[in-house]
Model the fold of this input.
Amino acid sequence: MDNQQLYKDLQALEDASFPKSCDKCGEIFQNEHEYIAKSTAYNGSSGLAQARDNQGERFVKLARRCLCGQPILDHFNDRRDTSKQGELRRMAFEKVVNDLVAKGIKREIARQELLNHMRGIESKILVEFGIFNS
Done:
């Protein structure tokens, strides 16, 4: 598994939470870039917040406002999502973990480093493997 394929798999993991649509006006956000470009900051803040699920796992929320004014929330690493997209996200996550294991990283470490990356925490191991720049 080369680093380029691993990067594509990581991107697929992020993209699995899209498309997303506004409940009020129906605006569709095909990906994270559209979500940010076609919405505005929530109450003048970055909209980023860290939260914990029922198991104590941390995840990141990004609150934005659709151009129609409706708040739109995206969760990164919300493992409680039982929808089809949630299942796709879990499958993509597992594939990336397996790719990292194939590169010689222990499964527990690969999982934690990937979770760290998804939470915006730099992963020294992923940087060492040349997957991401520091």
Notes: The chain has one domain: 3-128.
